[in-house]
Amino acid sequence: MLLHEIAHCRAGDKGTVATLTVVPHDDADYPALLAVLTPQRVREGLDRWVGGEVTRHELPLLCCLQFVCTGIRGGGVTVSTELDTHGKSLSSRLLALDVPLRRG
Amino acid sequence: MSPTTTRIGSGAGFAGDRIEPAVDLARRGRLDDLVLECLAERTIALGHRRRLADPATGYDPRLAQRLTALLPDLLANGVRLLTNMGAANPAAAGRVAREHLDRLGSAAPVAVVTGDDVLDLVDPAAAATEDGRPLGEHGELVSANAYLGADAILPALDAGAAVVVTGRVADPSLFLAPLAHRLGWDLDAPGPAAAGTLVGHLLECAGQLTGGYAADPGRLDVPRLAELGFPFADVGADGTARYGKLDGTGGRLDRHTVREQLLYEVTDPAGYRTPDVVLDLRGVTVESDGPDRVRVAGATGRTRPDELKVSVGHRAGHRVEAGISYVGPNAGARARLAADVVAERVRGLPVTPRIEVRGGPADARLRVAALHRDPGLLDVLAHEVESLYTNGPAGGGGVRTRVDEVIGVLSTFVPREAVAPRVTVLEAGRAAA
Question: Where does the AtuA-like ferredoxin-fold domain lie (chain A) (predicted)?
Fold first, then answer.
C-alpha cells in the first residue's frame, strides 16, 4: 500500500538539508512504520531528490519518525533551479512510497 | 510576584502571512503578548539590498500595513507586540512604529533591538558551514546577521516597551523573551529556556500549528481552511503549555497538527540549537485536552552554545525560469519534442539548464531553469523558450519567462562575546530621534 494510507508527513528545509516528519494517522501503526520505513527505503525512494545520507530518529513517546536528508540535489531554497525550491513537496513524494503493509 | 500563567499568541508565521487572524487574536484573544515572525533566511539579505538603494528602507515592506491593522486593538487590550519586521533596518522600523503610536495618541514606548548586523565581523575567508569553502568564494557578501537570543530582547521588556522591533533574532527567542519576562524565569537556567523555546518553536509558524500546511482532503481534513485561526498558548510558570485557537475560527489543533510542527525543520531532536539553549525534544509529550486544545510538556535543555549562528547573504548570480504549455491529445509528446528542441539549440552554451516536462499526457508544461553569473546568457535561454511559439511543436501557449538576481544564504559562527546587542527606546513624540 502507499504510505499515504497510514501516515501524514511534513517537510522542512534548512539549506541543503530536508527534514521529513512522518506521523501515523493511528498510533497503533507506529510499530509497522518502524519496521518498513527504514532509512535505506527512504533514501532509495527519494534518490532523485536526495543526494546525501538519510538519518532516522525514532520518537516513541510521540509515535513519530523524523528523517533528516542531507545533500538535497540542486542546493537549498535560495539557489535551487527546482520548481519547488524549498523541497516542500518532498513530504508528498515520501507518502507516495509503496510499503509492504496490508490493511488488517 | 510573577503570575502563574501567561497567554502568548502567534500573529504571523512568515512575511507573506495573512493579517486578519492576528487582528482576531488581538481583539478577542485575551493575550498578554502577540508575536509576528516575518523574517526568513533570505528576507534579510533582500532587505539589505533595498537599504543600499534607499537608507530609509530595509525593513519589512508590510510593516505599516500590519501595524495599522493591529495597533488599535493591541492598545485597547494592553497587548504587547514583538516582531522581527525590523529586518535589515530595525531603527527605521522602530521609527515607523513610533509614528503609528503617536498618531493614535499613545505614549507607549517602542524599543528597537540592534546589534545583529555583524558584516564587519565576518571574514570572507572564513569557511561556510555548508561546504567548508570560504564564504567569499560563493560571491560578494551583502549581509551577515547573527541570530540574537532572548537575552538581547529582555532589556527592551524591562524598559517597559509596548512594541519591540528587532532584526535577526532566533525565531523562538521572540517568544521566550516575553515568557521569561512575564513568568520571572531565569534565562541562564536551561530548564525554563527549553520550555519557552519549545513554545516559540511550536508557535513561530502561526497557522502551521492549526491545520495550515497539513490539509489533505479525505485523509487529513481541516475544517474551514479559508478561515484558518492562528494559535495561542497558555504557558505556566512550570513550563507546561496548553495550546489553543479562538472559538469560531477555522482550522484544527490536535495531536496530528502539533506533532508535525513539533519536529518541523528539526535536524536533531536531541539537540535543537538556538542562542538560548540546546533543546532536547525526546521527552516531550503531546496530549489532547479538549476540542482544539493540546497540552505539551517535557522539554529539557542543555546550556546555550558559546557561538552564535550567522546568516550570510551573498550574490549568487542570476536565475532564469521559462515555460510553455501544451494541452490535448499528444500534449506530452509535443512538450517532450519542445524539450528536445531547446536542448539541441542550447548545446555548446557555457551553462547546462534544467529542462523538464511537467504535468500529464494531456496537459504538459516544458520548464527550463538555470543559475549563472551572466544574466545575458540566461536571456538567451529564455529566448529559446519564447521562440517555440512559432518555431516549435503545435499549439504551444502560455510562455512565461523571467530572469532574477539570486541572493544566496550561507551560515557561519561567531563567538557570542564578539556580538554586542543594543536596545534603544523611542519615547512618545521622538520618532525623528
Answer: 1-99
